[in-house]
Amino acid sequence: MRIGILTAGGDCPGINATIRGVGKTAMLHYGMEVMGIYSGFQGLLTKEVELFTEKSLSGLLNLGGTVLGTSREKPFKKGGVVDGVDKPALILRHIDELGLDCLVCIGGNGTQKNAARFAALGVNVVGIPKTIDNDIWGTEFSFGFDSAVSIATEAIDRLHSTASSHKRVMVIEVMGHKAGWIALYSGMAGGGDVILMPELPYDLANVADTILERLKKGKPYSIVVVAEGIQTDDGRHAGEFIAREIERATGIETRETVLGYTQRGGSPTPFDRNLSTRMGGHATELIARGEFGRMVALQGGELASIPLGEVAGRLKLVNEDHDLVVQGRRMGICFG
Ligand code: F6P
Question: What is the band of 235 on the pLDDT scale with cuts at 50, 70, 90?
Fold first, then answer.
């Protein structure tokens, strides 16, 4: 059995730990071969690959990014044919030529969608959910999320002291694409006073009232956590837009911080290292059992899997009834 493994889409902490989890389990426990495919699906177009040895898997557990590199290559885009090249057909031929019995696709929503399409073409595929955004359908958590939340929480902690010293409003924009998970988890963990997410509509008057109420109660500074995906009136970036509107409505000096790619860089948290290791191991177990066309998932805190077809094209978004939202509201946090 020869496994091909690729990492696609935006990088995040924990990818290398997942590669290690798959690789070591496959080689040491099942006696399988593992071939690394470079730069996501692009490596299957160019046949840029390397057969792993045990040594290739050393030093990966706490290493950020992905040693296999990544790309946002979408082989099925425009019907799959670009400049006369039928990309899916070329990839199928290369999978055959490389002697790959199956493919492990580590990635976010786009990657799982591509994995589902290759599965429908008859390729033996197993997906592993990876994204800091935590928006992949069917899994409670994707690895990378906990690391991003921890980085964002530390940033919010640091903004508290400067906000309080200057009696300012500090707006922090965090990532998350169309989902508010990073804003919700880091906002709650960091003691944000206002948390705005794309899933919950906001009213700027409410946000301003919350900040002015705090001022009246002797709290002259506030922390506002904003997900990058919220709607803005004029197309401005979320953090910048909210900061200017707060300043205009309250008259309080307001500054914004855009956390950006630091949320995706560096070493994974212990939680993500263990989640990656467990998910990598579970993917290999699925392969050994011949259970293909599935994505590894965390359900009820346990490793499980769901059909790739169920994941493709769906997003897991924050819900009004999420216990952190409910609890936050009870404690006076403004969600818009
Ligand atoms: O999906 C992860 C993510 O970091 C999102 O939070 C963000 O919107 C996007 O990727 C940024 O993508 P890119 O790497 O293309 O700039």
Answer: confident
